[in-house]
Input
Amino acid sequence: MKKVVKMGEGKSAAPYKLVLPDEDLHEENGFNDLKVGSLYCPTDLMKCFSEYVSEVFPKIGWEESFYWANWRLLLCAAGCGFACWGHFMTKFPDGRVMLGLCVCSYFILSGFVAVLDYFILQASVVAIFPPQDSGLPQERIFLDVSMDRFESEITLIVRSTDGKTCIEKKNCASKYFTEDGYFECQACFADFALMLVEYYGKDKLTFVGETKKGK
Output
């Protein structure tokens, strides 16, 4: 009796290839023109990282997640709503009970926002899901960028929502910015890509660090 072996049976699927975006994509989206106003201002540096990372991954197939960001906006909007009601719609002392409820509600909602920022959002610039056809676990991951004051090192982090899996890398800011203040997009993408490879494992994800040639 013959044993029928299906094609590919017993073999593990090939790892998904994460390829460095080509120059055309960088040019079309103006990524090569990203420039900081001051190399000594952490806020300006983080703005460049945020603008690039939050846009480049969705453009290559990684779906951006707005779930926690939307919850934060909802809590902030509700808190502002209570604050406006207390300020414009109540009068002291006649409406002191309602005013007190509005004040308490505002501070409670502000507390929820602080908890959300501290435990979940942290220093994330974007939350993403892997492409559907990648074979990678469809779980939300955060890409964080932070820089301490009076320090020259920039910290990049790839982490899960629960924080159990966290990959961290620190580099001097000079790796990501030229002397003229232009942002080194490819260096940023390559570092995050290598961290994603470490996060998922080389058997599931590989990084092809060669720029594709435009047509």
Q: What stands out?
A: The first strand starts at residue 16 and ends at 19.
